[in-house]
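Fold it.
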Amino acid sequence: MAIDRLDHFSIRTTKMQETRDFFVDALGLEDGKRPAFDFPGHWLYCGERAVIHLIGHDPDNKALAHAVGEKSAEELVGSGSVDHVAFTISDAAGMAERFKKLNIPFKERDIADMNLKQIFVDDPNGVTIELNCFT
């Protein structure tokens, strides 16, 4: 099987503190460890798993634009705030090869301090799918 499980989803927001507080205070998630990315955010945990990644909107942050693309504040309302959906996979090389055979464009990224290989691909609706392979 190509996908092992749903891993997390990300919300890009202009209301970082309010969004964080809602998920922590109202829903009981915990604000926890997050890699030292060059853009604002929080990872919210359900037990030991970071299930929601919050990404702060900053139109001047080039690292953010490079990592997840550019969006205007006006686009970040309703379901437009959902930045991506992530799945865990066990074979990054095989998935990359599948995309190449299907002529589907994708991007790859390594996060060394997490032993993580990532692949990003857009579905036909423009929703970004993040595929995580822990090594």
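Helices lie at 16-26, 62-68, 92-101.
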